[in-house]
Design goal:
It comes from Pueribacillus theae. With 492 residues, the chain is α/β, with parallel strands linked by helices. It is built from 14 helices and 24 strands. The protein has two domains: 268 residues, Aldehyde Dehydrogenase, Chain A, domain 1 (3-Layer(aba) Sandwich); 185 residues, Aldehyde Dehydrogenase, Chain A, domain 2, CATH 3.40.309.10. It is 37% helix and 22% strand. The structure holds 2-aminohexanedioic acid.
């Protein structure tokens, strides 16, 4: 059987635990292979290798480090189709979206490769004569990267590429649900010429491997994307050890539809953002805040569109909505639908698991729409992470902004309107880390910072230049060439 192994110090190795987890195709339930479940001793071995490798890696000039990223980008491009097929097979998203995700990793590789020739610092005037001052970015050391199954290659690239370009070495724990894609990604690193020990892969549970990474005294930075619950634990435990912890967690993202909006466009945006990836994006549109004047029309047209969506195995090019990741996810999503019904929300479409003959064995949930949802209901506040969205009627932009902002998350939001003043008012007042105008809540590009406010994160950002702030330390340098002692703040 296909078995995913750890990659430590340039070698594919097992673990003494000899324990494995099954990996299955969410579209069919078919067993794809198994994944080694490591323990603390594997993390220790990986950290030792990473620490040793970092001694040399930090001395490799940044343009040369980044040149490897160019090669990785080119190899990802060459293998784009195989990687996309593998992604659909093990994670379930439809093939077009899988291609889009691999493209994100390609874009990130080329973007960060260019950074090898910038990695800008600052030169600054000194208070004293004949004295030169500058600040430069330094690598931090060994970094721990913990990534989720919903964007297994894109999110890993947002974190690993800046970390590598900046001269750090890595311990990567990918999600157990997407092991073979992680393996393929690391094989590309290896073939592109990344020295042994620069990237190490350790598979296992959060409880065992995740904890070992967070607690390891030689890991200085932890970059995590995943659930709020796990993120909080990492922040608490990492914080106690004075580590830098970068967290990217949930969202409760809203599309605002004003009364002058182009409704065809709004429906395209909503359907794409709410049901694409079966709603399993942290940027997914899980609230539609609609002006009461266009509510009924939007409802009717959305219902019609949702009924036409083709659901099935994402490898079929004509399928628009794939399965959700596993049975527990199906149950969790369905539980939220039950909660919504109990809270008094009106179910318009969906609200059930799908298991007719062509979908048998897979984890399919019908795209679901609630209406007459009030902002205080749990389905309007909590992240569902499935193909479920809720219409919340409002009477003005001010009310829409209030509803948008009045949740604990702050990742993404969007507004559909033709009124330029309303656009700028919304841009000023929406409190999310990402805001879209006249398009849905998904589709962030890698050269802009990715992340959110409030309980979505803890102030850091993935991708964009902002990612360098997670993986570098500033070093301030003063060079006095006056050939005498000049006393700062005194001899001025
Ligand atoms: C995520 O769901 O965690 O903006 C990432 C988007 C994608 C990335 C989503 N580019 O929807």
């Amino acid at each position: 059987m296909k078995t995913a192994m750890n990659f430590i110090n340039g070698k594919w190795v097992s673990s003494k635990t000899n324990q494995f987890a099954d990996n299955t195709n969410p579209a069919t339930g078919e067993l794809l292979g198994r994944v080694i479940q490591s323990d603390q001793s594997d993390v220790n071995a990986a950290v030792l290798a990473a620490k040793e490798a970092q001694k040399q890696w930090r001395l490799v000039p940044a343009p040369q480090r980044a040149e490897i990223l160019f090669r990785i980008g080119a190899m990802l491009k060459d293998q784009k189709e195989q990687l996309s097929q593998m992604l659909t097979l093990e994670m379930g998203k439809v093939i077009d979206e899988a291609r889009g995700e691999v493209q994100e990793a390609i874009d990130m590789a080329f973007y960060m490769a260019g950074e090898g020739r910038r990695l800008f610092g600052h030169t600054t005037p000194s208070e004293l004569g004949s004295k030169f001052a500058m600040s430069v970015r330094e690598p931090i050391g060994v970094v721990g990267i913990i990534t989720p199954w919903n964007f297994p290659i894109a999110i890993a690239s947002w974190k690993a590429f800046p970390a590598i370009a900046a001269g750090n070495t890595i311990i990567w724990k990918p999600a157990t649900e997407t092991p073979f894609l992680a393996e393929a990604f690391v094989k590309i690193f290896e073939e592109a010429g990344l020295p042994d020990g620069v990237v190490n892969l350790v598979y296992g549970t959060g409880l065992e491997v995740g904890s070992a990474i967070v607690e390891h005294p030689h890991i200085q930075v932890i970059s995590f994307t995943g659930s709020n619950e796990v993120g909080r634990t990492i922040a608490e435990r990492g914080g106690k050890l004075l580590k830098r912890v970068s967290l990217e967690m949930g969202g409760k993202n809203a599309v605002i539809v004003m009364d002058d909006a182009d409704l065809d466009l709004a429906i395209d945006g909503i359907v794409w953002s709410a049901f694409g990836t079966s709603g399993q994006r942290c940027t997914a549109c899980s609230r539609i805040i609609v002006h009461r004047k266009v509510k009924t029309e939007l409802e009717n047209r959305l219902i019609e569109r949702m009924r036409s969506l083709k659901i099935g195995n994402g490898l079929d090019e004509t399928v628009q909505i794939g399965p959700v990741i596993h049975e527990q996810a199906l149950d969790r999503i369905h539980n939220y639908v039950e909660i919504g019904k109990r809270e008094g929300a009106k179910l318009l479409v969906g609200g059930r698991k799908l298991s007719n003959r062509s979908l048998a064995g897979g984890n399919y949930y019908a795209p679901t729409l609630f209406t007459d949802v009030s902002p205080s209901m749990r389905i309007a506040k909590e992240e569902i992470f499935g193909p479920v969205t809720s219409l919340i009627p409002v009477d003005s932009l001010e009310e829409a902004v209030d509803v948008n902002n009045n949740v604990s998350y702050g990742l993404s939001s969007s507004i559909f309107t033709k009124n330029v003043n309303k656009v700028f008012q919304a841009l000023r007042d929406l409190d999310t880390g990402i805001v879209y105008v006249n398009t849905g809540t998904t589709g962030a590009e890698i050269h802009l910072p990715f992340g959110g406010t409030k309980e979505t994160g803890n102030g850091h950002r993935d991708s964009g230049l902002a990612a360098l702030d997670v993986f570098t330390e500033w070093k301030s340098i003063y060079i006095d060439y006056s050939e005498k002692l000049q006393r700062a703040q005194i001899d001025v």
